[in-house]
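Provenance and format

Records in this collection were gathered into a single text stream. Each protein contributes a sequence line and a token line. The two records reproduced below are adjacent in the stream.
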Amino acid sequence: MNRLEAKLRGIAARYAPVSLASSLQAEDMVLTDVIARLKLPIGIFVLDTRRLHDDTLALIPAIHDRYGLDVEVYEPQAEAVTNYVYFYGRDAFYGSTELRRKCCDIRKVEPLARALAGKRAWITGQRRDQASNRAQLADQEFDAAHGIEKFNPLADWTEAAIWEYIHAQQVPYNRLYDQGYRSIGCAPCTRPVLPGEEVRAGRWWWERTEAKECGLHVASDGRFVRAKEPA
């Protein structure tokens, strides 16, 4: 049994009910493959922001076809989205970091809270080498915002190791990776990465901050992990 399998078996045994928060990125597809192969009692949910790429959403039926797993899908509250668009504009997030975070709060943070209700722990696909602000990412941490444990079992995996696993196990993956994407979120907020850039450089590329996060991940003291705004 390899380390990842041991980690997931342990989490499933000690922290049920527990779910994987899947962004349908390569890392989450690796975790999905292990969960399915070992038949672990770990749920899988996706936050469908209603602005995801079609290539991303195509992985939901692909997971069912390949593994026989049904993924829970959580969408933003329709009224909140309507109000945002009415008062600020559909793509107002390009205008300021504040408006981008407000959009993320509506489309991702609030649905996450619903998805985690009643859970004892959740699992993510975060890795330390994805960005400089994730360099100290822990394998396990207490999520004070939701009052449950949070696990990052791929924290010490490299990008190369992720793709080695995907190709070896023939795991379904988002075809946008073949077009130069290395981190994939909402369609209007993601672009391919240029040579020499960090993995997450294509996320909210118009923002000039040291670390860019959507608000889903918080520090151990409950504060959202957000970069200091430029002077």
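Adjacent record:
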Amino acid sequence: MPPAVFLLALLSTVGIAAFTVIKVAALFTARRGSIPSDVAERLDELENDVQGLRQELAATQERLDFAERLLSTVREDRRIGG
């Protein structure tokens, strides 16, 4: 195959692929901008709920860490001096 024909075939293939990717990306961005207000409100509410759950989980993990340190201290004291 002559280099010019190969180059033409390669450029057309890459061009078609790039055009397709750009069109698909444009469709996705157009969809995101058209979220109904009730869905956006529900999404905001869910985000707030998740943030609250994260805070509760962090507090629970801190309590668990404290309890584990306390238990390990008691076990260490029993082992050392009984």
